[in-house]
Amino acid sequence: MLRRNLDVLQSPLDAVGVISTDVFDTLLLRQPRSQKSRMMEGEQRFARLLREQGLRGNVEELLQARLMAEKLAYRALNVGGGVGEVRLTDIVERQLAMLGLPARLRDKRIDIEIAIEKNSLYANGPLAMALRQHRQAGIRIVAVSDTALGADRLSELINYFHGPGLVDAIYSSAELLASKRSGSLFSAVLASEKVSSSRLLHIGDDELADHTVPHRMGIQTVHVPKGRLRRLATRADGARSEVMRSVQRRLRRSGRSRISILEDQTAFGREVFGPIVAQFCLNIWMYARQAEAQSGTLAFCARGGVGIRQAFEHLVTRLGLPLSLRRDNILVSRLVAARIALESRSPAVLDELAREFAGNSFAEVATFLGGGKYTFPPAWDAPFCSSRFFDTLDSPAGHPVLADVIEQNSFFRRHLDTMSDVRDRVILCDTGLYGSTQRLLAAGMPERRFETIQFARCNYKGLSEEHFSKLSGLIVEDNLYNPFKVETVILRYWHIIERLFEPSVPSVRMLSLGSDGIVEGNCGNIAYGKIDASAGNPLLGGVLDYIDDLDDGAQVMRDIPAAWVRLKQAITNPSELDVLALGVGLRSVDFGRPDTINILNRTDKASIAQQLRSVKSHLWREAAIARDFPRLKSALLPVIELAHILRGVSARFQR
Fold first, then answer.
1. Cis bond leading into 433, ω under 30°?
2. Residue 114 and which of 202, 448, 501, 646 are 20 to 30 A apart at CA?
3. pLDDT of the residue at 167
4. How confident is the model at residue 247 (pLDDT cuts 50, 70, 90)?
5. Nearest Cα to Cα of residue 440 among 298, 296, 333
């Protein structure tokens, strides 16, 4: 039976050996103040402390760094299958490191957090009185909390409101790496207290964590939920705090200088992409720092990951950011991953092949996948049909293809084994968007723990999003360009992000075993330090120049708003210089094919009507309009922007 009040505590509890109580919103009740407003007050106090010590203390920078550290820590914890809570000490340490502030200030910042909690909480007197009576009767009282605070800080808060001697022990999820929601924290309590589940009575406000989960374990529960009015008041306080913060940010941004005129690609890379890439690298670092709690490898995917790694290593070195997690460059591509999924007969590979090879024959698809020279019967010249592909490969003519696929997969597995154990987390780092590599590798190697962090995540393919739970876009996670969310502008011209990071080497198509037993790829040696991704790439060269001049992450936060505004302008309303700076020329279609496509097709000899009709054929339509219709672009480009706005509104209504 679900108990919703504390009446049960008014009677003797002969069948109970231990009473456990949740802390926040149960033993300690909250004033109607949101977490966001408490956090803002904390950073305001911390900023004053910093200024008193002669250090830079910008409230918005402190708050933004704290929110980023917290968000990415929880993302890494949850994706990696971790339980428990992220520790507040870790969040503050990363906040300080990012902003270039002394690590010795960590405990001072947490002291401020506790002081604010003391002003935001009040004692649950009736519950405390009942617990004291049962403690005097010989029942042990313990506090159990899913919290970022350690047991010492919880003890400080409980003693502040209730005085010493109320609880016999404190169990914190942050310390024990366990949680109530998973049940593991209750298991730790039962083991430590040496009590059976039927003799433990737990009291708390969260229906899942404090009733459903322990009840399934045979634990007696009392559910005391927060009142509806108190929940509404807390939400209103959070909304008020966010509105105030938004107004303050707009006022600060309006006073910031715009990026000056850019003379060349290097300048564009330094002033525009520099802050954007630096933010991406900071996000990678925060995610990876949390992942250090579990053994694993941060694997930068060929090709784009090579450039990302170069920028990332520059940044962690320049800012002195600690990171012990192993890092490697990995010989992988969609083709390599497709072979892995093909061997296991995963339906995921059929989705990808159907989309990529709609105009090819069975013979062409098999040749791309196998990588060899084959003789196929005439029936293989039929248009490719994914639903028949497995059966076709199982025919005698397909056996040589399968043999080559299996051999290639053995090389990849050997390569992967050199950088990680089968039980380790493999954190792939790539550019984006859909995460086909993640989906295919996870489908073909379920014994492995793959996850992916990338610049952006977007389901532009319209395929399954089942793998999105292990796929994180560290800068953008949207399926459509949103004119009111400036970062999504990269979805208008994604090829520039790929070009920014990719070195001038082929995509990984074939693996082989070297004389030293090391797996090699057709792309050559892409190990860190063996290839300079900025060679012949002035945009990335400018990014590295920016990173090499950084003093701290706070500078990145100050530069980011103007950089995104300038990039949006360059993509959606490009000048002649922008077209030259961001033009990427020919792009490989990849997936084992040698074909290339041009971002901007040439239409010099076409009529104006033909040029207008051809706009949709360009991968960067705004640049095509700026090039071909310089006098009309001021009228045509707003029409495109309006079309994107209407598409976004329509998509929201159709959800």
1. yes
2. 202
3. 96
4. low
5. 333
Q: What pLDDT, on a 0 to 100 scale, did the predictor assign at position 128? A: 94
For residue 535, give every residue at least 6 positions away whose Cβ sits within 8 Å of its Cβ, in sequence order, or none: 503, 504
The predicted model gives 343-352 an average pLDDT of 94
The residue type of 569 is Q
Give the tokens for residue 164.
Answer: 């010493």
Which token pair is 96?
A: 């300080």
Q: Residue 239 is which amino acid? A: A
What CA–CA distance (Å, rounded) separates 602 from 274? 31
Average pLDDT over residues 35-58: 93
**H or E segment to which residue 18 belongs:** strand 18-21
The DSSP element (H or E) to which 465 belongs, if any, is none
- Which backbone phi and psi does 482 adopt, to 5 degrees? -120, 110
What are 530-560's pLDDT values in tens digits? 999 999 999 999 999 999 999 999 999 999 9
Whether the predicted pLDDT of 1 surpasses 50 = no
* Nearest alpha carbon to residue 461 among 584, 356, 580, 617: 356
DSSP letter, residue 273: I
- Other Cβ atoms less than 10 A from the Cβ of 182: the count is 16
Q: For residue range 442-498, list pLDDT tens digits in order.
A: 999 999 999 999 999 999 998 999 999 999 999 999 998 888 899 999 999 998 999
Residue closest to 427 by CA, chosen among 467, 454, 409: 454
Peptide bond into 270 cis (omega under 30): no
CA distance 66 to 213: 31
d(CA 225, CA 5) in angstroms, rounded, equals 9
CA distance 134 to 136: 5
| Token pair for 33 | 């103040």
The answer to whether 157 and 113 are in contact (CB under 8 A) is no
Burial class for 1, CB neighbours closer than 10 Å (0-12, 13-18, 19+) = exposed
Predicted local distance difference test score (pLDDT) of residue 153: 96
Does residue 590 have a pLDDT over 90?
no
| Nearest CA-CA partner of 599 in 521, 448, 447, 497 | 497
Per-residue tokens: 568:
């949006």
